[in-house]
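TASK: fixed-backbone design
INPUT:
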């Protein structure tokens, strides 16, 4: 009984802490497992739907999770949306522009979902590359998508309804609905 009381008290404390983050909204039904890293800058926003699980705790998860869930929106008007009933486990979701994750999605541990390149190629002046901030292109992950562990989802990609991305894949182009895709770069392996 004491353990359950302590857990509820810690959960309330974490919820109060997250509610103080400007631009971060989540529903009372959001399940927090461990403490996520939430970093919002320059008027960006992050919206979490109903009954979403945000897992940042390695203990009790079926595989090794290398770090807590990280939600990072760091450019002006950047936005991350996570739809109802989705489960996100120890991934990094980094929006320069917009990342939309649909309803009932499963995102396994150690995935990297980033809609920006970090730096420009700058082949005309490579010495200045370090001073560039790169471009961005929105990512859309439609409803009921399952992304396996250790995947990388790159800028400008749409993953269609119901599709599965095999563990360890790098998604560089759009994936249609209702397929299994995998590899580096990810390609359709099987259609429904």
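OUTPUT:
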């Amino acid at each position: 009984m004491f353990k359950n009381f302590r857990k509820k008290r810690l959960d309330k404390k974490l919820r109060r802490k997250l509610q103080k983050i400007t631009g971060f909204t989540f529903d009372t039904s959001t399940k927090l497992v461990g403490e996520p890293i939430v970093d919002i800058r320059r008027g960006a926003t992050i919206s979490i739907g109903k009954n979403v699980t945000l897992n940042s705790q390695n203990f009790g998860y079926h595989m090794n999770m290398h770090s807590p869930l990280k939600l990072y929106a760091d450019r002006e008007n950047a936005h991350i949306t996570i739809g109802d009933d989705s489960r996100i486990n120890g991934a990094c979701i980094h929006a320069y522009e917009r990342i939309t994750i649909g309803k009932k999605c499963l995102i396994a541990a150690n995935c990297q979902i980033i809609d920006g390149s970090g730096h420009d190629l700058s082949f005309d002046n490579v010495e200045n590359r370090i001073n560039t901030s790169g471009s961005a292109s929105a990512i859309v992950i439609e409803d009921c998508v399952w992304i396996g562990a250790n995947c990388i989802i790159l800028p400008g990609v749409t993953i269609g309804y119901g599709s599965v991305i095999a563990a360890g894949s790098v998604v560089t182009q759009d994936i249609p609905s209702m397929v299994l895709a995998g590899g580096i770069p990810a390609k359709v392996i099987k259609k429904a």
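COMMENT: The chain has a mean pLDDT of 93.
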